[in-house]
């Protein structure tokens, strides 16, 4: 079974631009979560989607948004990029039920804002 | 508002047991303790989770104190490939597709296995 895939793997943007990152979950997984990882803040939760609905959100400004499609693939968008948005953006998928619903992470997209 | 605290770094000799502590003094009764690790340039990898009983799988053992305010992840025979950042987090496993799930990761423990 293929793992979580994220595209692109690396991205360089300039301040003020916007960016869209993509995540394809493991086949059969319906929940997708997004995280931002930086050396200073560690791993921070952005949001989670299930069945095309956002059902949990972290403490990030409205510039960060996301969506999920009917095939469970998800995208996140960051508008008006700032230097501080440079980070590794991780996507994780999981099944929805049971105690063993551990999350499976993708390799991440490394975003650099210049 | 981190719910877990971990030492920032630890060293362990290759072949010895690595014991990684985690404090979660505000854990709720229905929250599980989960451990993940992140090897350089990769996404985090699930290791193990538990509620109150000790757990063991092919990767590690998890020891949770009786009051559930702290836990220890044990890698019984550490190898160089176990060098990674280890994250402890607490969460309520989802039991229905519409429930909310609070997710928090701290800064983790950077474990270095020394040859």
Provide structural commentary.
The complex is a heterodimer of chains A (114) and B (115). Chain A is mostly beta strands and 114 residues long. Helix content of chain A is 0%, strand content 53%. Chain A contains no helices and eleven strands. In chain A, strands 2, 4, 5, 6, 9, 10 and 11 form a seven-stranded mixed sheet that branches. In chain A, strand 4 (31-38) and strand 5 form a beta hairpin. Chain A is globular and about 35 Å long. Chain A starts with a strand and ends with a strand. The model of chain A has no long low-confidence stretch (mean pLDDT 89). Chain B is an all-beta fold. Chain B is built from no helices and nine strands. Chain B has strands spanning 9-13, 18-23, 32-38, 45-50, 55-56, 61-64, 70-75, 84-91, 109-114. A five-stranded mixed sheet of chain B has the order 1-9-8-3-4, with no helix packed on it. In chain B, strand 6 (61-64) and strand 7 (70-75) form a beta hairpin. The termini of chain B are far apart. The mean pLDDT of chain B is 88. The interface between A and B is medium-sized, with 30 and 28 residues.
Tell me the structural class of chain B. mainly beta
Beta-strand fraction estimate of chain A: over 45%
What fraction strand of chain B? Answer: 35-45%
Mean of pLDDT of chain A:
89
Q: Count of helices of chain A?
A: 0
Basic shape of chain B: globular
Spell out the key features of this protein.
heterodimer, A: 114 residues, mainly beta, 7-stranded mixed β-sheet, 4-stranded antiparallel β-sheet, 53% strand, B: 115 residues, 5-stranded mixed β-sheet, 9 strands, globular
Layout: helices, strands, pairs:
The complex is a heterodimer of chains A (114) and B (115).
Chain A: E1 5-7, E2 10-13, E3 19-24, E4 31-38, E5 42-50, E6 53-57, E7 64-68, E8 74-78, E9 87-94, E10 104-105, E11 109-113
Parallel strand pairs in A: 2-11
Antiparallel strand pairs in A: 1-3, 3-8, 4-5, 4-9, 5-6, 7-8, 9-10, 9-11
Chain B: E1 9-13, E2 18-23, E3 32-38, E4 45-50, E5 55-56, E6 61-64, E7 70-75, E8 84-91, E9 109-114
Parallel strand pairs in B: 1-9
Antiparallel strand pairs in B: 2-7, 3-4, 3-8, 5-6, 6-7, 8-9
């Amino acid at each position: 079974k293929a793992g979580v895939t994220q595209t692109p793997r690396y991205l360089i943007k300039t301040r003020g631009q916007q960016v869209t990152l993509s995540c394809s979950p493991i086949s059969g997984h319906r929940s997708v979560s997004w995280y931002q990882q930086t050396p200073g803040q560690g791993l921070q939760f952005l949001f989670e989607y299930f069945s095309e609905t956002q059902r949990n959100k972290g403490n990030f400004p409205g510039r960060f948004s996301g969506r999920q499609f009917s095939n469970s693939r998800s995208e996140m968008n960051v508008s008006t990029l700032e230097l501080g948005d440079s980070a590794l953006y991780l996507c994780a998928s999981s099944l929805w039920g049971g105690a063993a619903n551990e999350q499976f992470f993708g390799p991440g997209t490394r975003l650099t804002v210049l | 508002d981190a719910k877990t605290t971990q030492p920032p770094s630890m060293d362990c000799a290759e072949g010895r047991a690595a014991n990684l502590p985690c404090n979660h003094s505000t854990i709720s009764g229905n929250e599980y303790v989960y451990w993940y690790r992140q090897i350089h340039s990769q996404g985090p990898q699930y290791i193990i989770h538990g509620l109150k009983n000790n757990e063991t799988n092919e990767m590690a053992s998890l020891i949770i104190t009786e009051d559930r305010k702290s836990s220890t992840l044990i890698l019984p025979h550490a190898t160089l490939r176990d060098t990674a950042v280890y994250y402890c987090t607490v969460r309520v496993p989802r039991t229905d597709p519409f429930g909310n799930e609070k997710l928090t990761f701290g800064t983790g423990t950077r474990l270095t296995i020394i040859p």
